[in-house]
Amino acid sequence: MLKGIYPGSFDPVTLGHLDIIRRSSRLVDELIVGVLDNKAKSPLFSVKERVRMLKEVTKDMPNVKIEPFEGLLVDFARRSKADMVFRGLRAITDFEYELQMAQTNHKLEPEVETVFLTTSLEYSYLSSTTVKEVAAFGGDISQFVPGYVSDCMKEKMNLKGECKL
């Protein structure tokens, strides 16, 4: 059984993330979307909330599992018995960073390959940071995230008093 991991913060999950999830899930028998719990960052959504959102927006993809993780990606890959890691590339700047990470991960765990997928053109500009900035100023984020995620964003940002959606 061929198993892959698509790791990320997904704070929040965007249509660009979903594009990579959908496309990478067609290349493996099982795709684990690993939701990173990075203690050094202050995300808008908790890991539990991000996992819940991802489970909701991927429920039509039977070979996709959503799991939280912390620590090194290669350790998560070992525990998950994954053969490969998928990463999405939007621009050259992404490639430079992702190449360094892939090479480091390969040194730490030579059995796990990194597969780069270029983002579909319609999402090449999109990032979670951009979505949060647009939402913070009351902009319409419905073209950037699934409807369920848009609703979660409105609720969360209104609770925090960060926007007037």
Automatic annotation (TrEMBL):
It catalyses: (R)-4'-phosphopantetheine + ATP + H(+) = 3'-dephospho-CoA + diphosphate. It is found in: Cytoplasm. Keywords: ATP-binding, Coenzyme A biosynthesis, Cytoplasm, Magnesium, Nucleotide-binding, Nucleotidyltransferase, Transferase. The record marks 17 as: Transition state stabilizer. It is an enzyme of class 2 (transferase). Its cofactor is Mg(2+). Its main location: cytoplasm. One of its GO terms (cellular component) is cytoplasm. Substrate binds at residues 9, 41, 73, 87. Pfam families: CTP_transf_like (PF01467). ATP binds at residues 9-10, 17, 88-90, 98, 123-129. One of its GO terms (biological process) is coenzyme A biosynthetic process. Homohexamer. Reversibly transfers an adenylyl group from ATP to 4'-phosphopantetheine, yielding dephospho-CoA (dPCoA) and pyrophosphate. Belongs to the bacterial CoaD family. This is Phosphopantetheine adenylyltransferase. It comes from Mordavella massiliensis.
